[in-house]
Structure formats: structure tokens, C-alpha cells
Design goal:
about 40% helix; alpha/beta; six-stranded mixed sheet; 7 helices; about 180 residues
């Protein structure tokens, strides 16, 4: 009997620690990132250039713990990330609080944030609304299918109507509107 038949089969996505190790590797080695290559003649470099300087981690089930690691990695002052896609990652209100703090004290130039199909709820939406009231870089936000009810929608609406003039594209929590 060979060693291969003794070792059990493990799916990569079934182990939270291997998933979180992959998240750390993203920031250590740029694996999984689409980074901009700057032209020496361009003083500013690309601003958002399609998929450049983007992080796409859709469907990895990172949860709140993985979200915290992502936020910590985004605070690297040597890099700018313009797009962050964390759809379908089981992010709840705790993960939303990490993202809210990032948006409040945004040292990067995060312009697009997609959090669709998570579990942010009313409390997480309220935290994001507070962050949006002071954030001046985010231009796109996706919050569809996040268990956000009337309280969260009211907080987001108020922040977007009165405090934020940067956001240009917003996908509302459609799950609420269907109920």
C-alpha cells in the first residue's frame, strides 16, 4: 500500500487555517493579486486601470477572522489597493467592523469594495454607514444579499444622503427590498 492511499483527501477550502495562510501569502508574495506595473514615464502610475491593484477573494469563506487579516494587510503603507472583492466569504458584523475601521482611517486609496452575499446584518451596515460618513475615497460599494433590514438601510441611506459625496455606484441590500 503506497503513501498516497493512506493520506486522506483534503479540499483546500475546507481548512480555515490553510485559507488564512493563503491570505497571508497574498500580502507576502503578491500571489492572487493583480498589481499594477508602473511605467517609468508615468509619474502617478495607473489610478485604477481595470483590474490593477485589485484583490479578488470571492467565495473563499474567510469569515471574520480572514477579513481581519485582509484589513491588516491592506494597511501596508508601501502598497495601494484600489479594489477589494470579498463576496461570499461569510463575513459578519465583526468583519464589517474591521472593514469600517479601514474605511474611516483609509490610508490607502480603496475605491471599490464588494461585500455581496455575506452576513453583515443591521449592525454591520450601521458600522459601514458611520465609515461612509467620513470616507472620501470609496466610489463603488456592493452590499447586496447581506441580511440587512430596515435599520441598516436607514443608516446607509442617511450617510449617503447627507455625509458622503464620493460614492458613485451603490448596490443596495436587495434582500431587504424583496421581503
Amino acid at each position: 500500500m503506497g503513501c498516497a492511499s493512506i493520506m486522506p483527501y483534503r479540499r483546500k477550502s475546507s481548512s480555515l487555517s490553510s485559507c488564512l495562510d493563503s491570505v497571508e501569502a497574498i500580502f507576502d508574495t503578491d500571489i492572487g493579486l493583480i498589481d499594477a506595473e508602473y511605467d517609468d514615464n508615468d509619474d502617478d502610475g495607473p489610478r485604477d486601470g481595470g483590474n490593477e491593484n485589485a484583490i479578488f477573494l470571492v467565495g473563499h469563506h474567510l469569515g471574520d477572522k480572514g477579513c481581519k487579516r485582509i484589513v491588516n494587510g491592506l494597511q501596508d503603507p508601501c502598497r495601494d489597493y484600489y479594489k477589494l472583492y470579498l463576496c461570499d466569504n461569510r463575513i459578519g458584523k465583526l468583519g464589517s467592523s474591521y472593514i469600517s475601521e479601514l474605511l474611516k482611517y483609509n490610508t490607502t486609496t480603496l475605491m471599490e469594495l464588494s461585500l455581496g452575499n455575506n452576513h453583515i446584518g443591521n449592525e454591520g451596515a450601521t458600522q459601514l454607514a458611520c465609515a461612509l460618513s467620513v470616507n472620501n475615497t470609496l466610489e463603488m460599494l456592493n452590499l447586496e444579499r447581506n441580511d440587512i433590514g430596515a435599520q441598516g438601510v436607514a443608516a446607509l441611506s442617511s450617510a449617503l444622503e447627507h455625509d458622503n459625496n464620493t460614492l458613485q455606484w451603490f448596490t443596495a441590500p436587495s434582500h431587504y427590498w424583496l421581503n
